[in-house]
């Protein structure tokens, strides 16, 4: 720095705001703290070194001392116990004291000595028979402490020796007690001998062993011996290891056993029952476990673990053999025996259902149930990666086979044994009934999600009282307005979940399966399994529950999982999974009940409609990806039919407008001869693309003289064309369709024998029907319900057969209820087809010609016959028809309607020919008005027409014989009556009425009398002059 001329020293200022003294003080304190911590760490290090040295020196001294004792032992008793006699085991002898002091399981010499001790001990007991006297001499009571200590140390040493050397002994672990010349058998037999339940020290020793995880050691011993199980099975006798487990399993804390409570992690249930295929290895142990009282104790013990049971189990053997799955398979295998015993208690069944439910919840989905997608973030996915691992096939099969019809029958019968079956609703369900319903529903819901449902549904539906019992429970809860919480029966079901959620999750799929097989007489006449009155109440409950799930309490998974931990997110998603599952099964059951109501009405169609549907809901339902739109797709019956028709019409109008605006001036023009209408339409229409089909089509008719008919097609001629061609194409004389006894149409199974290109014709007819619906044109074609099901891609069942073949249906129902031996009827799994006099025989099953119908398989035969007639025979024709139909009509549009409603969409109803409704929605022109005398005469004449003449009149003025589905207010444009002559001269009055169908316009001369009006109208509508009168 340059000299400034100022000799004074300037004061330095710390810009940090602190003086240097303060900074130095803080540094000093920090340095002092570091030094203090360093000295503390050094003291701890020195102390630890001293402890390590002390421990090492102590262990070294112990090893030296043990070596000295071992040498002394060898001198006194011999290296192989040559000098040992029965007195050596006495409490006053040093024999056991010295041996137990120096014994090491990994020392070969010590192991051989222990084996020899085992042989000697068995020999002395066999000679005398008194084990207590051998160890305690005369007075056990005064020396019991020392005796018990030596015995438990000896037993524990045997187990440790077996465990330590299990790999070397693996060929010996499953040998029978007679094989005393090997090393493992004497040790196992000594343990069996000393743990006899009759001995005074038995329970104390077992308690000591369990507390020291001896059962965990036994578990590993058994797993090592499993690889050599084939040798064991060839012997055919119980092994010593099995005898040991049979002794231990009896210590359950009940007389004569006095064992105290033990840690569940080290219990027999956790350590031994989790061994895969335990009963296959030890069949005698299985019989002991399945005995009355034994299995009940262990299952109750496991039930006390509650939902935490899986966390208490030992480490999995492998991903394919998780401990919980092995325990589940073993429990289920023995439970069938326990449940079949007459003395099996209600509490036992409840505990069994609870334990198997909690274990089965952890299983990966191995059945045909719906796979639920997990919407989790990356961290959650990482945590769950190891969970969904496929089980070993044999283990999976063990679980599947155990949940068999017999098991389900016994379980449900025991649980419902004490449940009230009275239909009265004065009192709600009691505690035992709630427990029974919760246990059954929890178990079956998890079973449905984890295992294939087909095997068990028929059993639950027809061989148990599940449906009436669950209905009785739900009805009383509903009528008393008090639903009991069943959240404790599923680990992920929250306490605030609706009480009806779990019962409906089980009731709906079982009852739905039952309705697929039940016949009309059982449902309507015998009212089985539920009365029609009960079904009406059921519909109300289902409708309210579904509306709650889909609209009132609807939640979205993506929103609910935000800002949540992985475990809580998984739990919440599981709750949403059961809610979604219930909404699906309730929707399916309600849809099926609606089908039954359409066959023969037993309740008002309005009972299926939700009370909360309003204008706001309808406006939302039209918009994609809204909640209302999702409800429209999943449960359309909740929305009134008229509202759905409006939605359908608006969807069609939007598509028509879009294609109309794109088409510009391009139009498809057809020139059709009336006497060749079907051939001309097929040739011209089949060439159009899907986009052209959706566009405008204009038609010019040519009469029988080859002259084009008068009139310009503004839409009316096309409507007339559609009505005429559909009448011709669907005529049974043409051979593509046949009629049922009720004159309802369905595809002709023998159509290929008449038309070589019959599949192309069916595609064309599907396109025709689709075009009619697309343009909003009603056509008078009555289809059979089972064929309309094919437009919805649904499956037909036995109860649909009466509409096709009532006689065959009666014969099948006769077989279903036949009391005798059906095999005597000489029926086989074949069916004879008779088309146009040509008979062919088809097998209903592979090898069906040699498979006789018996009482056991008659239900299968009945449904195979129904399936053949209702589904198989017309499958190809229906498939081609559907392809053509779906060129214009989307599947989700049709899915809004059931088959009965679909027929109304196609043909309308007779209610649409209401003259009063037409009068209310009519316009007038040319001097006419609603009060004009000519108009009064006209309406009086029209009202007197027959139904057939009304249809002809409607076709004359609109081009279609059916009115709009929702009434004439939706006719576009509205019907109009125009005066056809200015004056009432004779020439004017002699004219016939004419029409402009594209404008729905009637040109009516001012006739003076009712008779003249009726004569002229009837002549005009019956002239069949095409558009020459237009």
From TrEMBL:
Domain HECT: 689-1030
Catalytic residues identified in the record: 998 (glycyl thioester intermediate)
Protein name: HECT-type E3 ubiquitin transferase
Pfam families: HECT
The gene coding this protein: UPL6_2
Organism of this sequence: Stylosanthes scabra
Keywords noted in UniProt: Acyltransferase, Transferase, Ubl conjugation pathway
Reaction it catalyzes: S-ubiquitinyl-[E2 ubiquitin-conjugating enzyme]-L-cysteine + [acceptor protein]-L-lysine = [E2 ubiquitin-conjugating enzyme]-L-cysteine + N(6)-ubiquitinyl-[acceptor protein]-L-lysine
Entry's EC annotation: 2.3.2.26
Matching InterPro entries: E3A/B/C-like, HECT_dom, Hect_E3_ubiquitin_ligase
Keyword Hydrolase: no
Chain residue ranges for the region called Disordered: 1-22
Amino acid composition bias (Basic and acidic residues), ranges on this chain: 8-22
Gene Ontology MF terms: ubiquitin protein ligase activity
SMART domains xrefs: HECTc
PROSITE patterns referenced in this protein's UniProt entry, alphabetically: HECT (PS50237)
């Amino acid at each position: 720095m340059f000299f400034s001329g100022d000799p004074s020293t300037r004061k330095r200022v710390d810009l940090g705001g602190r003086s240097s003294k303060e900074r130095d003080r803080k540094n000093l304190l920090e340095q002092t703290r570091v030094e203090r911590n360093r000295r503390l760490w050094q003291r701890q290090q020195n102390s630890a070194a001293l402890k390590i040295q002390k421990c090492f020196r102590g262990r070294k001294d112990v090893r030296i001392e043990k070596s000295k004792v071992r040498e002394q032992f060898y001198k006194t008793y011999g290296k192989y116990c040559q000098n040992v006699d029965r007195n050596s085991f006495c409490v006053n002898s040093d024999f056991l004291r010295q041996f137990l002091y120096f014994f090491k399981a990994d020392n070969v010499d010590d192991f051989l000595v222990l084996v020899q001790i085992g042989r000697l001990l068995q020999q002395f007991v066999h000679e005398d028979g008194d084990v207590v006297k051998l160890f305690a001499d005369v007075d056990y009571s005064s020396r019991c402490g020392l005796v018990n200590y030596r015995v438990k140390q000896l037993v524990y040493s045997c187990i440790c020796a077996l465990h330590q050397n299990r790999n070397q002994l693996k060929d010996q672990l499953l040998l029978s007690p007679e094989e005393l010349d090997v090393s493992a058998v004497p040790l196992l037999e000594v343990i069996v001998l000393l743990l006899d339940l009759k001995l005074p020290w038995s329970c104390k020793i077992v308690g000591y062993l369990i507390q020291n995880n001896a059962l965990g050691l036994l578990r590993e011993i058994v797993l090592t011996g499993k690889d050599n199980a084939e040798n064991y099975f060839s012997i055919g006798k119980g092994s010593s290891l099995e005898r040991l487990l049979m002794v231990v399993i009896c210590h359950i804390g009940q007389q004569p056993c006095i064992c105290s409570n033990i840690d569940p992690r080290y219990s027999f249930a956790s350590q031994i029952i989790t061994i895969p295929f335990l009963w296959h290895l030890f069949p005698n142990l299985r019989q002991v476990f399945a005995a009355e009282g034994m299995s009940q104790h262990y299952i109750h013990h496991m039930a006390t673990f509650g939902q935490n049971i899986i966390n208490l189990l030992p480490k999995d053997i492998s991903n394919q053999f998780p401990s919980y799955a092995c325990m589940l398979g073993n429990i289920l295998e023995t439970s069938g025996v326990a449940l079949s015993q007459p003395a099996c208690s209600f509490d036992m069944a409840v505990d069994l259902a609870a334990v198997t439910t909690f274990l089965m919840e952890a299983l990966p989905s191995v059945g045909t149930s719906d796979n639920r997608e997990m919407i989790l973030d990356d961290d959650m996915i990482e945590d769950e990666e190891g969970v969904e691992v496929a089980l070993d096939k044999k283990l999976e099969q063990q679980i599947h086979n155990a949940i068999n019809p017999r098991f389900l029958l016994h379980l449900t019968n025991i649980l419902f044994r004490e449940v009230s079956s009275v239909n009265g609703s004065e009192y709600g369900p009691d505690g035992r009934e709630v427990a029974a319903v919760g246990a059954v529903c929890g178990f079956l819901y998890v079973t449905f999600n984890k295992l294939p449902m087909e095997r068990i549904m028929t059993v639950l539906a027809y061989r148990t009282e599940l449906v009436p019992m669950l209905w009785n429970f739900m009805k009383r809860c509903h009528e008393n307005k008090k639903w009991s919480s069943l959240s404790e029966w599923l680990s992920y079901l929250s306490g605030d979940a609706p009480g009806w959620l779990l019962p409906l999750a089980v009731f709906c799929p079982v009852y739905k399966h039952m309705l697929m097989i039940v016949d009309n007489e059982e449902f309507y006449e015998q009212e089985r399994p539920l009365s029609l009155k009960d079904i009406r109440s059921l519909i109300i409950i289902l409708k309210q529950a579904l509306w709650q799930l889909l609209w009132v309490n609807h939640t979205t998974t993506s929103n609910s999982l935000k800002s949540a931990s992985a475990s809580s997110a998984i739990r919440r998603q599981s709750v949403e999974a059961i809610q979604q599952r219930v909404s699906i099964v309730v929707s399916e059951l309600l849809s099926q009940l609606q089908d039954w109501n359409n066959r023969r009405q037993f309740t008002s169609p309005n009972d299926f409609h939700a009370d909360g549907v309003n204008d706001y809901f309808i406006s939302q339902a039209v918009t994609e990806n809204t909640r209302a739109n999702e409800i429209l797709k999943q449960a359309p019956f909740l929305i009134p039919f008229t509202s759905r028709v409006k939605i359908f019409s608006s969807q069609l109008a939007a598509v028509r407008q879009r294609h109309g605006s794109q088409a510009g001036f391009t139009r498809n023009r057809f020139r059709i001869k009336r006497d060749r209408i079907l051939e001309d339409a097929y040739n011209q229409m089949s060439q159009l693309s899907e986009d052209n089909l959706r566009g405008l089509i204009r038609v010019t008719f040519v009469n029988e003289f080859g002259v084009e008919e008068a009139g310009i097609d503004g839409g009316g001629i096309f409507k007339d064309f559609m009505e005429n061609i559909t009448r011709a194409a669907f005529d049974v004389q043409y051979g593509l369709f046949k009629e049922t006894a009720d004159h309802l149409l369905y595809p002709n199974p023998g159509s290929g024998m008449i038309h070589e290109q019959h599949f192309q014709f069916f595609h064309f007819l599907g396109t025709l029907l689709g075009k009619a619906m697309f343009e909003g044109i009603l056509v008078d074609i009555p289809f059979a319900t089972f064929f309309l099901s094919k437009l919805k891609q649904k499956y037909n069942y036995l109860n649909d057969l009466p509409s096709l073949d009532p006689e065959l249906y009666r014969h099948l129902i006769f077989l279903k209820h036949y009391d005798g031996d059906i095999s005597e009827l000489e029926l086989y799994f074949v069916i004879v087809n008779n088309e146009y006099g040509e008979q062919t025989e088809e097998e209903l099953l592979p090898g069906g010609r040699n498979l006789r119908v018996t009482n056991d398989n008659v239900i299968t035969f009945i449904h195979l016959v129904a399936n053949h007639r209702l589904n198989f025979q017309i499958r190809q024709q229906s498939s081609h028809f559907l392809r053509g139909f779906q060129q214009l009509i989307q599947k989700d549009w049709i899915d809004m309607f059931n088959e009965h409603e679909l027929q109304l969409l196609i043909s309308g109803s007779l209610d649409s020919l209401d003259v009063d409704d037409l009068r209310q929605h009519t316009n007038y022109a040319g001097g006419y008005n609603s009060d004009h005398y000519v108009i009064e005469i006209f309406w009086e004449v029209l009202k007197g027409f027959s139904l057939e003449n009304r249809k002809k009149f409607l076709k004359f003025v609109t081009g279609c014989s059916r009115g709009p589905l929702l009434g004439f207010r939706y006719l576009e444009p509205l019907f109009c009556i125009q005066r056809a002559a200015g004056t009432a001269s004779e020439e004017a009055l002699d004219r016939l009425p004419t029409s402009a169908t594209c404008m729905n316009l009637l040109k009516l001369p001012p006739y003076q009398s009712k008779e003249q009006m009726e004569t002229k109208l009837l002549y005009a509508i019956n002239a069949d002059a095409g558009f020459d009168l237009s």
